[in-house]
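Quick one - inputs below.
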Amino acid sequence: MIPPTIEWISGTEGNILPGHVRMIDQTRLPLELSYLETADVETIWRAIKTLQVRGAPAIGIAAGFGVLAGIQSMNTDDPAELAAEAHRVADHLATSRPTAVNLFWALDRMRAVASAGDVSVGSLKERLAREALAMAEEDAAMCRAIGEHGLTLLDGVDTVLTHCNAGSLATARFGTALSPVYAAREKGRVLHVYADETRPLLQGARLTAWELMHAGVEVTLICDNTAAHVMKSGRVGAVLVGADRIVANGDAANKIGTYGLAVLARAHNIPFYVLAPTSTMDLGLSHGGQIPIEERAAEEVTEGFGTRTAPEGVKVYAPAFDVTPAELITAMVCEKGIIRPPYHDALEKLSGAL
Amino acid sequence: MIPPTIEWISGTEGNILPGHVRMIDQTRLPLELSYLETADVETIWRAIKTLQVRGAPAIGIAAGFGVLAGIQSMNTDDPAELAAEAHRVADHLATSRPTAVNLFWALDRMRAVASAGDVSVGSLKERLAREALAMAEEDAAMCRAIGEHGLTLLDGVDTVLTHCNAGSLATARFGTALSPVYAAREKGRVLHVYADETRPLLQGARLTAWELMHAGVEVTLICDNTAAHVMKSGRVGAVLVGADRIVANGDAANKIGTYGLAVLARAHNIPFYVLAPTSTMDLGLSHGGQIPIEERAAEEVTEGFGTRTAPEGVKVYAPAFDVTPAELITAMVCEKGIIRPPYHDALEKLSGAL
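Output:
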């Protein structure tokens, strides 16, 4: 029902290589569903750069596949030469989005396999291919687990509210915050979703609304400023959001607007859940005040739709995300299960168990 | 410093008539300040219809001036004929925005003067002219009074946050929620303003940011979903908003998003003030639940900027306003002074005093 965001298509039965990447071209959404299919490294580099693929896990997977595309047709008998080429392609792909942590993490996994050495060219190609596919499968499995765990929190809930896109389109498949919605649907249970449009870049309107409609989930789009009114009307049973970073005390950074939703949820006695893989946890920081807040360009607010909608020269404050304090988070969900307050101890235990 | 939104320009010294209307063409904002100058009833009708002039008080004033434009050059000795023409023009102008209460109220004032009769054509023209000008002057004076009273609430405050446009552009001059900011500026005091962009129609970005910049007030534009983060950072000393309707128990309807701001203000211990003239008070309704909530067209959310930004056929919930319960309102400000809780008694007393 919910199509893979990105996958490797093998050309011949039984062999992973040669093959090509097939990804949803997210720059064409929500107007049309079209796929980018390519085995060209430059095209994959540009796809990451221009947000044809976006969302930290999906970017990492694209990079892994990009390395495969770069080495699969290499004609050499020297495994060292193949390994060097894999490193060269990885270095190049790393320049596509210089601040994407998952990109570097995925490329490092490919580099480590390339450097393990002492095998034939054929075996090395096979190992690289298995590693790239494993990253995609692991991500889908992790998202799936988040969905199953998350769904256990939603007994008796028939409507949830979400912000931005922590959905299938940000991952290999299923997503994080939206995964329980898909898990429910597979069990024949209907969860209705209110999707914040999420200014300034409208990921909720463009991506979340699209992927839920495409999967046959009933979704209602609202402006960000309408969430409070919808909550007051009693129509929201839970808020589900993703996270960009969760620190040791349980404070969570996520798309701008998430913190306000958490305050509103508390005021309306609505549970507020953060769903994110353990890779999002950064226990090196002790509290949310230590998370640097990136500011975005004023133009994303003043002329985000090709039309200028604010005076020339107006001062704009456009932080990319905000920090929700742990005390407003009812529970967290990761691939290993549910995490409940007090978060400091729970996250430390989890980290020891990782 | 802050230019009149709409005024009557007399052609000859000492006489009100003949003359013409001069209004800021708000459809050209925020890109350019241009004026519509006309003595043609059809042009004024269209200006109201197409939102070249908007905001309840400003629309009422435009309508009064429209009647003047319609009768000023009438060549007759029969006052009954002049009165009939005034009624005919008023009936026509009333069709420009069929749900605008201030429009009908202003036209009724003009009709009452036209029907008072028993005077010469010259005197009747003069009386109509004085009535139309009085409405503009009364509105500016009322806004000015709201500003002076409101400013007394802002001792020690250097930054306020506002939503939508309850500014000069919605009135003859000065505005309601923004009037204390202009009053402060006249006294040489600097108040910095955070302006919510106010989706879906972006009145904050297009109008509030423009009029504050034009008046030399320091303004920072934010997305609606950023207000919570700004409040948490300690940068907001008070929230100032207008109102569309205030009912007997003090509940106040205003632009969608206002209620959420009130909840957030309470959570951050920031005073939340509603500034509106007594004409906004509708004591015939006992509580906010009785106020009907108008829903806007989905297209305002999905393709508000000439570009489609959400999937075709997506379900949208777009209420035009929400209701802030009285208990979240720190104080109200009207032209007669400050109103404090318990609002039911205060509003009843005020109504007796009207």
